[in-house]
Write a structure and sequence with these properties.
This protein is mainly α and 393 residues long. It has 3 domains: 18-126, Alpha Horseshoe (Serine Threonine Protein Phosphatase 5, Tetratricopeptide repeat), CATH 1.25.40; 139-230, no CATH class; 257-389, Alpha Horseshoe (Serine Threonine Protein Phosphatase 5, Tetratricopeptide repeat). 64% of the residues lie in helices and 0% in strands. It contains 19 helices and no strands. The chain has helices spanning 45-57, 61-74, 79-91, 95-108, 113-125, 129-142, 148-159, 163-184, 201-214, 220-230, 233-246, 250-255, 263-277, 280-293, 298-310, 314-326, 344-362, 366-380, 386-389. The longest helix has 22 residues, at 163-184. The radius of gyration is 22 Å and the shape is globular. It starts with 44 loop residues before the first helix and ends with a helix.
Length: 393
């Protein structure tokens, strides 16, 4: 199979990292040797940390990076500052620099959950499942009575399209939570026992729902109902956004696009709706932005080519589709951006084949069009393409 090595990321654990920037920042201020580093932000670094985090929340990552580095000049080795700088670097596409900082944090603060959570985020943004698994393993040791680390395990498995294993882990987490509740003689943790970052019965239910939806499991709707009944509003909204994509409800996906973790995912969710509506010009602009965020994501490339063709820009579409259909792609190409179903790769490849065959047919090359359709059907079967799910042409 052409793309058997490609992992499919699913649900709101999917990984759309930022594109690497031309000018990499100098993070030497974050890497200085410190005898007794402190985790808490101290002294003159406090107001700078606040300013930097405000820039981060406003997605002004370059400005945030510069201020975090000033804060680290004021408090060399500050653990919280380094952690937040690692997030910001990763969001801005500076994965190498973020990884350097994570390595130093692990060396200095190996017993802090926050360090391993930061590693998980960098792993997700860099499509590094091994890094995500390492984070999950360490969290399981640091918090053996918590189900939190199951979330990291699931993220890593989903990033490699190991959906059956992710389902098993989700079931195990649910069983562990049930056993934990039974041992206390109650069905849910009391509010004072529930940590906002930890796993409650509701968050476990929603975690299970997102995995079952991705795997198109028989009990997906049952698990979704449990998430609705037990999960928080934010958890329900996030799962609903991915559930909408799994069933091809582009209008609902666009409605909940704000729940997606990465900006490019939001653009792509709305682009699906625009494609279904026949608004190719709007979809082209949205997919161009998503493609700029992650140029190695094959599913983004295919949808971008589809909309270029619909907008009358078939020559541009062909340049994107040719290497995808023939398999002449760089090794880092992944069908991972929005893999919300177990059959996502087949849906994407049928979309690529359908679009390219249509372009060849329109150009009068019926033989080439038929050869493309046969190649795709032989390798990916006969069935719907991505846009067929939502009623696209």
């Amino acid at each position: 199979m052409l793309f058997s090595h490609l992992a499919l990321l699913t649900l709101f654990a999917t990984t759309a990292g930022g594109a690497a920037l031309a000018d990499e920042p100098d993070v030497s201020a974050a890497l200085v040797d410190v005898k007794n580093p402190r985790w808490e932000v101290k002294g003159k670094a406090i107001p700078l940390a606040g300013q930097a985090y405000s820039k981060y929340k406003s997605k002004k990552y370059d400005e945030a990076i510069a201020i975090y580095l000033r804060a680290l000049d004021a408090q060399p080795g500050g653990g919280t500052l380094m952690e937040e700088l690692s997030w910001t670097l990763a969001r801005a596409g500076h994965i190498s620099e973020a990884s350097q900082i994570i390595d130093l944090l692990v060396e200095r603060f190996p017993k802090l959950d926050d360090v391993w959570q930061a590693m998980d985020l960098v792993g997700e943004l860099s499509h590094d499942a091994e890094l995500m698994r390492r984070s999950a393993s360490e969290l399981s040791v640091l918090s053996p009575t918590s189900t939190r680390y199951y979330f990291q395990q699931i993220d890593a498995l989903l990033s490699e399209h190991r959906l059956e294993e992710a389902v098993t882990i989700a079931d195990t987490a649910a069983e562990k939570m049930a056993a934990k509740d039974d041992s206390k003689g109650k069905t849910k943790p009391e509010p004072e026992e529930a940590d906002a970052e930890d796993s409650t019965a509701g968050s476990v239910a929603c975690m299970s729902a997102r995995v079952k939806v991705a795997a198109l499991a028989d009990d997906a709707e049952e698990k979704w109902a449990e998430c609705v009944a037990e999960g928080s509003e934010g958890e329900r909204d996030r799962v609903e956004s991915w559930r909408a994509l799994a069933v091809g409800d582009w209008a609902a996906a666009a409605l909940h696009a704000h729940e997606f973790r990465f900006d490019a995912q939001k653009d792509l969710a709305v682009a699906f709706l625009r494609i279904a509506e026949g608004n190719a010009d709007s979809a082209v602009n949205l997919l161009k932005k998503a493609h700029e965020h992650d140029s190695t994501a094959m599913d983004v490339q295919v949808l971008y080519a589809r909309t270029l063709h619909d907008a009358g820009r078939s020559d541009e579409a062909l340049k994107i589709l040719e290497p995808i259909v023939t398999g002449d792609l760089p090794e880092d190409t992944r069908c991972t951006f929005f893999g919300v179903r177990m059959d996502w790769e087949s849906l994407v490849m049928r979309e690529a084949g359908d679009t390219m065959a249509h372009i060849r047919m329109a150009a009068g090359d019926e033989a080439a069009a038929e050869a493309i359709r046969k190649k795709i059907s032989d390798e990916y079967g006969v069935g719907p393409s991505v846009t067929d799910l939502g009623g696209g042409d």
